[in-house]
Design a protein that fits this description.
NAD(P)-dependent_oxidoreduct, Rossmann fold, 7-stranded parallel sheet, aldehyde dehydrogenase (NAD+) activity, globular, alpha/beta, 3-beta hydroxysteroid dehydrogenase/isomerase family protein, isomerase
């Protein structure tokens, strides 16, 4: 394959990376889509759908350089995305791996690198509506995931600018949809266990991002003018929702009781702090059942301004929130019946 026909997607066995690789294989038959990941089983499924799959660890720099030979476009979706874990694991997955991808892009003279970042870098525990990309960042990131993703985003721009690679970054918030295992499925698990409590204001507003819309935004970033190199974009559905309305809708779809018991936010935060302290001391590898970050996600307003993506990339979310939730909840309900 010639260079202009080869697209490499890291994290292709993850939610966004897999959806993107499948979309590209289905819609761009004139291009070779290469997926990188560590899950061989999911890799075989991608191969059956027309994706050339390579199982590798991005911390293996030599392997990254080999697989990027002849690449025109690289989309870096791979990351360790979790609210809890050992810092060294986040550094390896989110910083070291990104360093290797960027170095290989520069060495292989890749035309465009699209880096998937996170709006988690904005999180400071306070309510924010309509956050813009130039929002002042907190002095201390909320967790190791946000901290290492911020370092990764900055190194992408600094090194790509020096190395002649056109780089863009996207900050999609709370990606969900059929096949997701992180957001609504985790809430569903808490509902089934009867341990979800209503916290804070019922009208807490948040932004979510449907998977198909994030894929569209990523494709737009891949194809964007070279003049936009160095730009970063917030991505969401552009339709803020009350998070507790979504949770109630999830409970109804799964025929589970809606959460009724309430916990004052200050008490929930105090309990979470105590649980986190216990786990850091005695069970550092086990994610606590209650986290301050989790409490804040359910009780603190956070929405994004996506005007820059609309104006510069031409981003238009084509699946609205109501349809997106319907599709996702139907799939969760089907999965529930199969188990």
């Amino acid at each position: 394959m010639t260079a202009e026909r080869r697209i490499v997607v890291t994290g292709a066995t993850g939610f966004l990376g897999g959806a993107l690789a499948r979309h590209l294989a289905a819609t761009r038959p004139w291009q070779q889509v290469v997926g990188l990941g560590r899950d061989a089983g999911r890799g075989r499924a991608l191969q059956a759908q027309g994706v050339e799959f390579h199982a590798l660890d991005l911390t293996d720099e030599a392997a990254v350089h080999r697989v990027l030979r002849g690449a025109d476009t690289v989309v870096h979706c791979a990351a360790l995305s979790s609210p809890w874990g050992r810092r060294e694991a986040f550094v390896a997955a989110n910083i070291t791996a990104t360093e290797h991808v960027v170095a290989a892009c520069i060495a292989r003279q890749v035309r465009r690198l699209v880096h998937i970042s996170t709006p988690g870098i904005y999180h400071d525990g306070a309510p924010h509506l309509g956050i813009r990309e130039d929002h002042r960042l907190p002095a201390k990131p909320v967790n190791d995931y946000a901290a290492t993703k911020l370092v990764a985003e900055r190194l992408v721009f600094e090194r790509c600018a020096a190395g002649g690679v056109s780089a863009l970054a996207l900050r999609p918030r709370a990606i969900f949809g059929p096949g997701d295992s992180a957001i609504l499925p985790r809430l569903a698990q808490a509902l089934r266990a009867g341990r979800l409590r209503r916290i804070g204001d019922e009208a807490c507003m948040v932004d979510l991002s449907y998977i198909d819309n994030v894929v569209d935004a990523t494709v737009l970033a891949m194809d964007a003018s070279w003049r936009l190199g160095g730009r970063v974009y917030n991505i969401s559905n552009g339709e803020p929702v009350a998070i507790w309305n979504v949770i109630d809708r999830l409970a109804d779809a799964l025929s589970l009781p809606r959460p009724r018991k309430r916990v004052p936010k200050p008490l929930a935060l105090a309990l979470a702090s105590a649980v986190e302290a216990f786990h850091r001391r005695f069970r550092p590898d086990a994610e606590p059942p209650l986290l301050r970050y989790g409490v804040e996600l359910l009780s603190v307003d956070m929405t994004l301004d996506i005007a820059r993506a609309r104006e510069e990339l031409g981003y238009r979310p084509r699946v609205n929130m109501d349809e997106a939730l319907d599709k996702t909840l139907r799939e969760l309900a089907r999965a529930e019946r199969r188990t």
